[in-house]
Amino acid sequence: MKYLAQQAINALQLGSIYALIALGYSMVYGVLTMINFAHGDVFMLGAFFCLLLIAIVPVPFWLALIVVMGATAVLGTLIERFAYRPLRNAPRVSAIITALGCGLVIQNTTLGISPYARPMPHLLDNVTYQFSGITITTLQIIIIGVSVGLMIVLDFLIRKTSFGMAMRAIASDRATVSLLGVPANQVIAVTFALGAALGGAAGLLYGMAYPVVSAAMGITVGWKAFVAAVIGGIGNMRGAVLGAFLLGAVEVMTVAVLPSTYRDLIAYSLLLLILIFKPHGLLGKPALHKA
Amino acid sequence: MIGMTAWTKSRYLPPVLLVAGLIVTAILPDTGLVNDYLQFVIVSVAINAILCVSLNLVNGWMGEFSVGHAGFMALGAYASAILTVKLFPAAPPALLFPVAVLIGGCVAGLAGIPVGILSFKTRGDYLAIITLAFLMIVKSGLENIPYTGGPRGLLGIPRLTTVAWAYFWCVFTFWVIRNLVYSKYGRGIAAIREDEVAAEAMGVNTRTAKLVAFVTSSFFAGVAGALFAHQLQFINPSAFDILKSTEILVMVYLGGVASLGGSLLGAGGVTILTQCLQPLGTWRMVVLPALLVLLMLFRPGGIMGYLDWNWLKPRLRIKPRSQHSKLQTTMPLSSLQRVTPTPSISKPINLPPGSLIPDQFESDQVTGWRKYFLAAHPQAWRRFWARLIDVGVARFGVDFVAMIVLFTTGYWPPYETHPFLAFTGTFVVWVVLLMLYEAIMLASFGTTIGKLIFRIQVLHYDASILSFGKAFARSNQVIGSGMFYLIGFPILTFWTFYRGYKDLVTRGRSSWDAHIGSVVRCRPVFVLLYVFGVLLAVISFASCIIVLDNTKHEYSRIIRNQIIGR
After folding, report:
1. d(CA A125, CA B237)
2. Which pLDDT band, with edges at 50, 70 and 90, does B518 fall under?
3. Exposure pattern of A233-252 as b/e (b: 16+ CB <10 Å)?
4. Which residues numbered 211-270 in A keep a CB inside 8 Å of some CB on B?
5. CATH class label, A2-121+130-277
């Protein structure tokens, strides 16, 4: 029982990081029906921005979080403005390819600048608490707390504000919404900024939890988060969070039972199984295909 | 000429050429003309061409988005390697190798069946995700099988992929896919891309078509994987990850979707460019995707998207109605009736600035050899000299860039490897940069430095500035003059002349843009550009002299030692 509870905390930690990244994938897909393959690399850059920031000025954790989120938000907006907006009315495949290309450019530029994995310095003094045999660290509390907090803020933004309403409206019909006077391009840019900021926060938290930062992170972790978004039904925010926690749990349990090399096998088999039986994910709705 | 036409149109020519190619590739390694490195590059081009054209069947002609091609490749590679390493290590390779490659292809093809079946219901993004899941499952499955060495991979594979075998499989792949694509099935596959519901309503069996496309595509991916394994002599699961798939995708979308020639161009171009950019290290993987993003922004179908070279298409057996396809000159009928004197080359046309001149001229105005490629401008000599200056400026610019790279990396260009490679490598880079220079200048200013001097502006027929894509396409012709400038390329020079002649005969002009021969308004930015160009030329000329002083031995290291002093 204690073992299970311990694993559940680990699963929550991994799941909440996945959820932050998956939300970025899902938001962009919801608004533009486009898979933003560069998002995983924005996540990776979040961790590197943090490294860079600490190397220049040693700042406290909260300030680092805010600065990194701001930097990745700017980056996300720039990518949207210069790579995706010119392709707004192009075939979908062009947009996907551009996203892949952007991701590769970011990843390989990082690889060129920093070819080796780097250790992440400690931002917090890590205290370990014991609750009747279950160990939990400050880091885990902060990771889970920050992620859940950001998710609640995002949910509030989407459901209760006029911006959220505009975003949901664009997701359902962009052309009509533009005709009704909603500045669609601005809303899309803000959506990208939000998603990238969440990705940057996830990069920082991931770097703190597993204290090695490398350029390949965007692929290994980023794609996993994408799988989580698809499992939950891409385009659906709550689905993304559900899928992320589910994937985190499955991965932690796999590692607990089987050798860790089976992690990817199980994760992607789960994805395939869910797509075969629920082709649009757990909470996703089938898209309307216009002829 | 008639005899030559009959000879080139003979139905026996393609098989004769292909067999001759096979013989050449079979004896090529023994002649000593190409070293091991060049052979490696040639075989890589062939393997990548197989991968590229087979992925193009699904991604280009069928319009789906598969990212799992490396997975099929991995299956083929492992199946064939198990055969040659584990099961029959003592069998004669000449017999075993073709069988191993075939079996590798068949294993991959079998794996293509479930993916094809899943594609019946799922389309678009979700199908892309399914292929991604397939790839990851194959990769991590292979990592967990101890029999094939797990994550360490399979070692000691015999080197059986020769240039001749690679050539043979490449030709075979192109032949099969060409025949498939231009058949009834192929039309069905293309119809699915355009509109699946309509295709089904018109009687296309979409399920069969999808299955055929997926199985064929994965079969050839497996073949390429088998060749790849026996070329590198070592395979491990991480060689077949998402990056490998992305590399193939880059080739497909750079070369052009739904195009045989595009696949060839993409595979060859990307492979050779990767080899030429070797000194850049990791940064070359920045250059290629950036190129891809730029291409997607300006020309979404790739260089040859939905187009093909005629010699790659099956021949039509029906005679086209050639009499009607020839365009007549579009001089107004009234002028023909009244026999007005046409503007001649000695008399420049004086028109107010900004007014349009019809873009077709009587080809008789330009006489002699010039008319075969210079007939589009009323003052052809202006265009000729302008272009010559542009070529020179771009050439010096490239030398300048090359010098910078040389000084910073010390390994540019790869002269040490092979003189032929060095020559072609720099040539490819030069041509690409020349095209980019001309296209960027035309798309942003409507003129280039050389054209500015001769007061030529190249504009769209509605007097707006050309788009980048159009300007880029147009700069193909600039290369033609570049060939003239570099007399060392007789075949390409001939080709340019021939194309110019053909266009002149059939269309009455040799290029497709409209020219405005009026005065270009002098803007400060043009003057700045001009000064910049002159400076660039002077500096690069000086640096070239430094290089020429040191040509005796290995360029790069000596210059670096002398100048930087390390």
Report:
1. 40
2. very low
3. bbbbbbbbbbbbbbbbbbbb
4. 219, 223, 227, 230, 234, 259, 261-265, 267-269
5. mainly alpha
